[in-house]
UniProtKB/TrEMBL annotation:
GO BP annotations, alphabetical order: quaternary ammonium group transport
Organism listed in the record: Spirosoma aureum
Listed name of the protein: ABC transporter ATP-binding protein
Classification via PANTHER family: SPERMIDINE/PUTRESCINE IMPORT ATP-BINDING PROTEIN POTA, SPERMIDINE_PUTRESCINE IMPORT ATP-BINDING PROTEIN POTA
Pfam family, one: ABC_tran
Molecular-function GO terms, alphabetical: ABC-type ferric iron transporter activity; ATP binding; ATP hydrolysis activity
């Protein structure tokens, strides 16, 4: 569905994207792990049409999109801070994309109620954005994106501002909804556990170069990603916990 070929971008003397190539089949969530400054925001901005590359090509279903303006690309870009209309309640925020497309009230009612239920927001429809928690605001933001059925969803550390527990809940919810709606998405994060939870395919972006992996084990075992080291760390913490507990239980 998405084909990115030999994309390069330089700001002054800094080469931010270096001949970057990857593809993303329809219905897949590609989790891209990248440290700060690796070029992830520049990549997502180019895909969304907010930045232009120096060289390279971006195709969706075989058609170049580089000369297509952002509003016609059917690409939605979500970042850490959910963008909601402060004067509209949750229902109307989600309904917005349908209203401007002149969808009938009956259809709007049906589609928004169904989506709010999928996002576990059924009881929040009448609230204003200022009355929601961070995780709820992020779910409304997903709802606004999903309702218009974008061809491609771009997520730039969307859960970065949430506490660890809410973040874990959101990762699971995102995974479920992504499968249910067969979303094609590029999800960029610096958190390897998040990448493993949300991704159906995996990439690693480092100094503007993308490595795509054939399998989850190739991703985990590439020492550059640091995933293996992190998993080993958590395993050692768990083992230490088990030893501490068993040393307090008297043996029979
Ligand atoms: N408009 C710009 N003008 C000049 N330099 C830029 C511009 N946008 C980005 N850069 C530089 O390009 C590099 C990559 O920036 P980018 O925003 O893509 O990084 P990132 O991977 O998203 O990092 P972070 O996670 O810290 O936001 C950085 O060195 C940044 O300073």
């Amino acid at each position: 569905m998405l084909d990115v070929t030999s994309l390069s971008k330089q700001f002054g003397q800094t080469l931010v994207l270096n001949n970057l190539t990857f593809d993303l089949p329809a219905g897949q969530v590609m989790a891209v792990l990248g440290r700060s400054g690796c070029g992830k925001t520049t990549l997502l901005k180019i895909l969304a049409g907010l930045e232009t590359p120096d060289t390279g090509e971006v195709r969706m279903d075989g058609q170049s999109i580089l000369s297509v303006p952002p509003e016609l690309r059917q690409v939605v870009y979500l970042y850490q801070e959910p963008l909601l209309f402060p004067h509209l309640n949750v229902f109307e925020n989600v309904a917005f994309g349908l209203r401007i497309r002149k969808v009938t009230n009956e259809q709007v009612d049906h589609q928004v109620h169904e989506l709010l239920a999928d996002l576990e927001l059924s009881n929040q429809g009448k609230k204003q954005p200022s009355q929601l928690s961070g995780g709820q605001r992020q779910r409304v933001s997903f709802g606004r994106a999903l309702i218009i059925k974008p061809r491609l969803l771009l997520l730039d550390e969307p859960f970065g501002n949430l506490d660890a527990q809410t973040r874990a809940t959101m990762q699971n919810l995102f995974g479920r909804v992504a499968r249910q709606y067969q979303m094609t998405a590029l999800f960029v994060t610096h958190d390897s556990r998040e990448a493993l939870t949300v991704g159906t395919s995996f990439g690693y972006l480092d100094q503007g170069v993308m490595t795509s992996y054939e399998s989850v084990s190739d991703f985990v075992n590439d020492p550059r990603t640091g995933v293996h080291a992190e998993l080993a760390f958590w395993e050692s913490v768990q083992l230490r916990g088990q030893k501490a507990v068993s040393s307090r239980i008297p043996l029979p």
